[in-house]
Amino acid sequence: MRKITAPILGVDIGGTKVEAGLVDASGRVLLSERSRIVARGSAEEGLKSVFAAIDALLRDPRAKKAKAVGISVPGWVDSNRGVVVNATNLPCWLNYPLAKKIERHYRLPVKLANDGNAASLAESAWGAGAGYKNIFYVTLGTGIGVGMILNGELFAGTTGAAGEGGHMSIDTRGPLCGCGKRGCIEVYASGTAVGRQARERASENPVAGSRMLAAARGAVDNITAEIVTEAADHGDPLASEILQSSADQLAIWLGGIIDLLEPEVIVIGGGFGRVMMRYAPRMREQLKVWSINPNRKRVKILNAHFRSQSALVGAAALWLAHSKK
Ligand SMILES: [Zn+2]
Predict the structure, then answer these.
(1) How many CB atoms lie within 10 A of CB 38?
(2) How much is the pLDDT for 324?
(3) By the 8 A CB rule, do 136 and 110 touch?
(4) Phi, psi of 185 (to 5 degrees)
(5) Are residues 157 and 148 in contact, defined by beta-carbon separation less than 8 angstroms?
(6) Among 305, 228, 235, 316, which Cα is nearest to 270's?
(7) Helix or strand holding residue 247 (H, E)
(8) What's the chain's average pLDDT?
(9) Taken in order 189, 190, 194, 200, is the CA torsion positive or negative?
(10) Residue 167 Cα, ligand 1 centroid: separation in angstroms?
(11) Which residues lie closer than 8 Å to 98 by C-beta, 6 or more apart?
């Protein structure tokens, strides 16, 4: 097999958007383009959203130098076959041969991975996890994804389907999650969950929710995690309470993770991860209750280096890590 070198075309597929970027050998994103995804239509409509982002990128001559494509998807994938098995936030694809479709369209080799796994590779190679051997990576956004680097290697389970840490339940009587289980951490501490909680609370008590309702132009359905964050920044008590509660639920979950894996570092990424990192001191305080590991204080909690582009760079790392061997 011929050696693949940078730049690589990385594609991060999320529940609401697709971002394609050109990534160099040191993990830098040279240029990037986004498009909206039609996640709840047909498989072909979903695929066309991905083509739209890649086509936009390829308008730049620099992107035409890419020799391979790496794709990250939020859900279960079979990396060996390049198949999206099942992704809660991408119902358009079920056992869908995404890698093959993209390979045929662009005539470039394609690798596919779960977004959390891809992002943890990027953080490990060039980001906040560089220099550490045991990393627990978590991305907070539409959903919650994780990736585990153990003894310097990506740990993806027996078949590659491990890393669905967002669907670990912290309350058997909790709200129903899209995955079918109850009380998954994703229904408490993802950006989607925070938006939903704020809409429920503002409906119950429009006076307490008045700042968020005003930002949503009076329509409770328009309240998002961004509106909650902005209201909390202005000292809104209800918005602050919702974010603090999510941080407390995260601490319960992370306490279990620390007790299970004892990582050197926890790296928090994703668009909503930046918001939750403001509560890192509060989470650390709560970890006294939720972790029994005697070394828990030494576990660092760090902002992801790549922020919302971790999965994009990670998708490219699928090839660059390979070509290093
Ligand atoms: Zn779930």
Answers:
(1) 16
(2) 41
(3) no
(4) -60, -30
(5) no
(6) 305
(7) helix 237-261
(8) 93
(9) negative
(10) 4
(11) 47, 50, 71, 73, 82, 83, 84, 112
The 10s digit of each residue's pLDDT in 168-190 is: 999 999 999 988 999 999 999 99
What separation in Å is there between the alpha carbon of 141 and the centre of ligand 1? Answer: 14
CA-to-CA separations, 32 to 62, 212, 220, 278, 309, in angstroms, rounded: 11, 32, 33, 27, 10
In DSSP terms, 17 is beta-bridged to 36
Residues with CB under 5 A from ligand 1 (ion): 167, 177, 179, 181, 184
Instruction: Look at phi and psi of residue 129 and say left if phi exceeds 0, alpha if psi is from -120 to 50, else beta.
Output: alpha
CA-nearest of 301, 267, 270, 268 to 284 is 301
Instruction: Report the first-to-last Cα separation within the chain, whole angstroms.
Output: 12
Our measurement of the distance from residue 67's CA atom to the centroid of its chain's CA atoms, rounded to an integer in Å, reads 25
Residues 261-318: pLDDT tens digits?
Answer: 999 999 999 889 999 999 999 999 999 999 999 999 999 999 999 877 889 999 999 9
Q: Are 322 and 138 in contact (CB under 8 A)?
A: no
- Name the pairing type of β-strands 94-96 and 144-150: unpaired
Report the distance separating Cα 156 and Cα 243, nearest Å.
31
Q: How far is the CA of 88 from the centre of ligand 1 (A)?
A: 9
Q: What digits encode the pLDDT tens for the residues 16-42?
A: 899 999 999 999 999 999 999 999 999
The string of DSSP codes covering 183-215 is: SBTHHHHSHHHHHHHHHHHHHH-TTTTHHHHHH
Tokens of 36: 């909206």
Please give the model's pTM, rounded to 2 decimal places. 0.85
CA of 321 to the centre of ligand 1 (A): 31
Residue type for position 255: G
